[in-house]
Amino acid sequence: MSVMLLIEQVLNGLQYGVMLFLMAAGLTLVFGVMGLINLAHGSLYMVGAFACAGVAAATGSFWLGLAASLAAAAAAGALVEVAVIRRLYDRDHLDQVLATFALILVFSEGTRWLFGSFPLYLSVPEVLSGAVTLPGGIEYSLYRLAIIVAGFAVAAGLFWLIGRTRLGVRIRAGESDREMIAALGVDIRKLYTVVFALGAALAGLAGALVGTIQSVQVGMGEPVLILAFVVIVIGGIGSIKGALVGALLVGMTDTLGKVLLPVAFGTVMDASDATAIGSALASMLIYILMAGVLIYRPQGLFGEAH
Amino acid sequence: MNLLKSTAAAMTALALAVPAQAEDVKVGMITTLSGGGAGLGIDVRDGFQLALKLAGTDGVELIVEDDQRKPDVAVQLADKMIQSEQVDVLTGIIWSNLAMAVVPAATAQGKFYLSPNAGPSALAGARCHENYFNVAWQNDNLHEAAGAYANDAGFSNSFIMAPNYPAGQDALAGYKRFYEGDLAGEVYTKLGQSDYASEIAQIRASGADSVFFFLPGGMGIAFMKQYAESGVDIPLVGPAFSFDQGILQAVGAAALGVKNTSQWSKDLDNAANRTFVDAFQEEYGRLPSLYASQGYDTANLLLSAMEKADVADQDAFRAALKEADFASTRGDFAFNTNHHPIQDIYVREVIQEGDVFTNKIVGVALEDRGDAYAAECNM
C-alpha cells in the first residue's frame, strides 16, 4: 500500500463525501426546519441530472446544462412543496413517508415517459477533462478535483447563508419555534417554500455533477438518498455542520474501507478470500459507523438532544 | 337440415383447427428493459423479434416482461408466465444471478428454457438440466479467450476486475484458466456500481501491464469514461461485453484499438450473419450487438425445433432442439453434451467507421471451444 495510492483514495473519499453533503444538506434542512421526512429528495437529484443531460445535449454546453439542473430541481422542488408537501407538515411521519414515496413513483414514471428507460450519458466539459499532476506527483482526474472544490465552495456558501444573512436567521428561527416567528410577521409558508427549493437545487446540482461521470438514469437517486439519510442521522438532524462532517465521514469510511479491508484481510488469508470478505464487510462499514455513533450520541454528532 | 349441416361443418372446422393450434408455441421472455442493463435486454428482444418477423411465422406467441435486473421481480414474472399464462418456453434473462433464481425452478416444472445470454457455471455442470439449452455461451468462454489472447499479446502481469455475482466470478475464473502470467491485483466490484474511482486508483498503483475487466452494460460505460478521465494508460483487455455496440457509442474514441473477445462480430462472413446485420439495421436503425445476435439465434433455434416436432411432445421437441439445425449468425454451431455451445471465439479490435465506433475481427482466440464443466453434467 503506497502513500500515493492512499492519498488518491483520500481524494476519492473527499469527492464522494462532498457529493453526499450536497444531497444531505437539503434533506437535513427540510427535516430540521419543517420536521418533514422527504423520500422524494432522490427524485430531485434525478431531475437535476436529467435537466443537465437534456439541456447539454440540446445546446452542446455543459455549463448551460449545469445551470438548468439547478433551475429545474429548484422549480420542481418549489412546485412539489406548494402542491403536495405543504399539506403534510401537520401530519405524522408515516403520512409524509407515504406521500413522498408516491412522489418518487410519479417522478420516476414521468421521467421514464419523457426520456425513456435507456440511460443517458454526459461528457465532461473540455476544460475539465483529463488528469492533472498534483504536488508530490499524484495524478488525479481534474473533473473530480473540481467537484471537491465546488462542494466545499457550496458548503462555505451555505454556512454564510445560514449564519450571516437575514434568510438564515429566519431559517434558524423557524427551526426552533415556528409559531413565534409566524407571530412576528414572517411569512412562514413562503420561507418553507424557499428552504425546500434551496434543498432541491443542491440535490439537482449533485445529480448533474455525478451524472456526468456516471450515468443519468431513472432511479439513480434512491441509493444516494439512503446514504444521505445515514449522513444526517450521523451528523444530527437539522445541522448543516453535522451534514458536512457526517458526509465526509461516510465518504471516507466507505472509500478507504473498500481499499484497506481487503488488504488487511490479505495479511491473514489468501487473496481471493480476503477480497470477498473484505469487500462484503466494507459495504457494511458505514452502517456499523452509524450504529456506533448512535450508541455514543443518539442525537447525532451535532444534533441537539430533545 | 341446413342448421345441422352448418353445425357439422363448424365442428369439422374446429376439429381441423385443433392440431394447428397445438403447434403454436407460447414463449415467455423475461429480460432487462430498464435501468443500467436495459441496452442488453432491448437488443436480445429486438434480435428475437427480428428472427420471428423474417421467418414470417405466426406460430409463436411472444410475451415480453421487464425484470428490472431484480431477481425477485424475475421470479414473480416466471411464476406468472408458468402458472397463469401457461407458456411452453421461457427465455430472455440477461443476468446470471437472475438466471439462477428462475431457470432451475422453470425446468423442474417441465418448461423449456433457452438462454440467450446468461450461462452460469452451476447450470453447465452438476446442475445441468435436459430442458435447459444455452444458445449464447457458458459464462467463462469469452474470458477464457481473453486469457488466451493476453498470453499471445505477451502480457504477464494483469489486474483483473469483475462484479461480485455468479457471472463475475465465472469471468475471473475463466480468465485465470488460460492466462499464464502473474496477477497484479484481483478486485470484485458491486453489481450495478457506477463509480470506479477507487478501483482506478488501485489499478494505477498496481504496476500492471494489462487490465482485464468484465463490466457489462452501464457499468462498463461508467468505468471506461472514468478510466479515460483518470490519466491511467495501461492497456485494457476484455470480453465483448465490456466493448459491445451500446458501450462503444457512449464511450467513443477512448476505446479505439482495444482488443476484446467474442463469439460473434458483425463482420463475420456468412450468409446468415449478412442477412441478420442488414435486416437489423433496416428494422431498428442501429448496428446490432452480440446480444442482438444471441436473441436472433435463440429465436431461430426455437423455429427450427418447431418445424420438426410439436412442443407438447417434450422428448421429440428436446431432440429437435439438441440438433441445433439452424443457420447461426456465428457460422458453425453445435450443442455439447451439457446443451451449451461448441463454437469458435474470436479476437476483435475496436475501430471507427465514419462516426460509428464498432468492432472488427483480427484473429481467432479459441477454436471449437466447449466449456470446462461439461464433464460434470449427467443428463
- What is the average per-residue confidence, as pLDDT of chain B, rounded to a whole number? 89
CATH superfamily of the largest domain in chain B: Response regulator
- In the predicted model, the low-confidence regions of chain A spanning at least 5 consecutive residues are none
Helical content of chain B, roughly? Answer: 40-55%
Give the tally of structural domains of chain B: 2
Whole-Å distance between the termini of chain A? 45 Å
User: What's the order of the H and E elements of chain B?
Assistant: HEHEHEHEHEHEHEHEHEHEHHHEEE
Instruction: Please name the CATH topology of chain A.
Output: ABC transporter involved in vitamin B12 uptake, BtuC
Q: Within the CATH hierarchy, at the fold level, what is the topology of the largest domain in chain B?
A: Rossmann fold
Could you walk me through the main structural features you see in this protein, from its secondary elements to its overall organization?
- The complex is a heterodimer of chains A (306) and B (379).
- By secondary structure, chain A is mostly helical.
- Chain A has one domain: ABC transporter involved in vitamin B12 uptake, BtuC, CATH 1.10.3470.
- Chain A is built from 11 helices and 2 strands.
- Chain A has helices spanning 3-34, 41-59, 62-83, 93-115, 142-164, 166-176, 178-183, 188-213, 221-235, 240-266, 271-296; strands at 131-134, 138-141.
- Chain A has a two-stranded antiparallel ribbon with strand order 1-2.
- In chain A, helix 2 crosses helix 8 and helix 3 (62-83) runs antiparallel to helix 8.
- Chain A is globular.
- The termini of chain A are far apart.
- Chain B is of the alpha/beta class and 379 residues long.
- Chain B folds into 2 domains: 8-137 and 268-335, 3-Layer(aba) Sandwich (Rossmann fold); 140-262 and 345-375, Response regulator (Rossmann fold).
- In chain B, 45% of the residues lie in helices and 21% in strands.
- In chain B, helix 3 (71-83) runs parallel beside helix 4, helix 6 (140-153) runs parallel beside helix 7 and helix 9 runs parallel beside helix 10 (245-251).
- The longest helix of chain B has 21 residues, at 2-22.
- Chain B is globular.
- The A-B interface holds A 2, 4-5, 8-9, 12, 15-16, 112, 117-119, 121, 124, 129-131, 139-144, 210, 213-215, 217-220, 255, 258-259, 262, 271-272, 275-276, 279, 283 and B 33-36, 38-39, 42, 164, 183, 186-188, 190, 194-195, 197-198, 201-202, 204-205, 218, 221-222, 225-226, 229-232, 250.
